[in-house]
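Q: Sequence in, structure out?
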Amino acid sequence: MKSGEETVARARSLFDVVGVASDPSTNDTILILGLVSTPERDLDDFAPAGTKTILRGFARHAKDKEDALIEFIGEHGFAAELVGELGYPLHGEPNLKHLAVAAGVGKQGKNTLVIHPRFGPWLRFMVIRTDAPLAATGPGIYSKEENPYCEDCQECVQACPVGILLPYRLVDADSCLASISEGRRSELAICDKCVVVCPVGERKAP
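A: Exactly. Output:
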């Protein structure tokens, strides 16, 4: 088995979904790694720390898997590094959603999240940049098009409590946290109403 195939096989043993794409801004090979966020494995657990954001869910549930994969790639003679904080780009490029679509792991839904046929909008993605010889798993480009799972559905659009969601587009992304309850203002809470109402897939780890 070739080293690239071994790398992807190892990644699939650690993560729920794996894709390979090229970062259009750098032409680097990118591994897109997805884990399902569940109540028991809450990857949406964030907390503020001064000017930084602590990815508590990623640290608890993803870090060991990321470290194991990077070590595996290194043992095969290739370089690998996490992009952003624990593989999650907090500031700017690369765009995780665009890379996930380019890698063929799903299509963008009306709630702007990547919708996976099995896991719906519950996948949380992280990125590893590597020089390992990996074959692309998707179309290689990001394209915004009608998602067949979303055609006649408006659940997410209607559920948005601040009215900023249009099909496939956030009108005002900065207002997306506007519905934080008083009891949670000490934490960075993410409104997930447009995720919870999505009828596609299941919020359950394999």
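Confidence is low (pLDDT under 50) at residues 178-187.
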